[in-house]
Amino acid sequence: MRSAVNQTLKRKFAQTFDLPSAILLDQATIHLMGDAEAKVVNHKGLVQYTNTCIKARSAQGLIEISGADLEIVSFSSSEIKISGMIRQVMLK
Amino acid sequence: MTSLFLWWQGYVTVRLRGPGLEHLLNKMTDLGIALTNVERLTGDVVIAKLMVRDFRRLRPLVRGSQISVTILDKHGAPFFLRKFKLRGFLVLGCLLSLLFVMYLSNFIWFIEVSGTYTLSNEAVKEAIEDLQLRAGIVRSALQPRTIEVELLKRFPDLAWVQVSIKGVKVEIILTEREGIELEQAGPGHVYAAMDGVITELLVLKGTPQVRDGSTVRKGELLISGQYYDQRGIQQFGAAQGVVKARVWYEGVGEAALARWEPRKTGRSHRQYLISIGPLRIPLGRSYPEGTHLRDSKEWSLSLGRALVPIHWSKVDYHEVEYIKVEVPRETAERNAYELAWESLQSQGVQAGQILEERTTVDFIPDADGIRVMVQVEVLEEIGQFMAY
């Protein structure tokens, strides 16, 4: 309850002062380059990694990227770069 | 992380095997270990690349867990340099070869001459050697301008010479003077170089002796070098002009109406041959080529990529008898026609310049063959200047 209030306040603050909400709200950002490359920035950890599905935690929930021949090109505490045939990106 | 940076720092390819690999990957990134090319092979195997200094921090993470870590490959400058550290003589050898190559590059090793048409390459090369330009001389001792001037002096037919040094090669580019021989020639007439019927006569200098439509024989005078100038005074000069005529060429080709073809009798013999360098050791007898067809297979001994001069051959000799095969008249005629054309082409006739073509076919008496005579008419310049 408290964190929901915090989030709402932060969102209002970001909107009022025209600040980037992704930073203030600790949101994950997903970049898609066509259907061959994806980048998840500000993730909170890898949950599942197979050739067809990669799941990562984020402040907003579980990010699920599914497709074929998926491979993690680079993996660091802040960013996951994925290559392969991307079919679906979901936030659960 | 660029790949060059990775290579410079040194990186390892590791195989992580065990349950809960995602958890381990998260723990690694929490410690600041960056991974690249993380590849999932099976449900419990992941292959990834990480920097050498990060690998040392990975050990405590897997200690006590069921996950095993194996280094599959090592890459990068630290490993590369370590190899050299252990091989002092290899480094020394590399350095010495580098120095040797640098030393050798101070000399001229190749000399290339281009642009000679009437001048012989040998004559130019001899002159170049006279000027102390030969393979093996020190590059700094070479004076291209001096050689250029000297070559121009020695060969008056040269209009331009360029000597340039390109690494260990000297390039000599020559351009010959294009002289107009006719202008420099003394007085003379233009004669017919071959028989023909004149179709075009253009006199530039001199007096015409024939006219369009005249039939001329080889050696006949076409344009005389004697003419009268504007003041009516007789002059003797070099006749000049264009004389085109219809000329004939003849080519003859013969072809047989039967040929002898070898047919295998069914009897065959095998021979083996061992070749060691130039030495050939036959195992079994050889048969003459007139009565036997030869079919051979060869194997060479090789050690990896290096070829050893030892060969092993299997030769099959098939006995043959010759039978007479009739050649269809059309085929023989075509073969003879092609031969006749080859003869025409050897006389300088080209298929594109033919005005008229006539073909005569004859049987060769008692020789079981056919003879084709091809006569062609072409338009050619027949004027040939000859001095008095």
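qc> Residues 110-176 of chain B form a domain with the Ubiquitin-like (UB roll) fold (CATH 3.10.20.310).
qc> done
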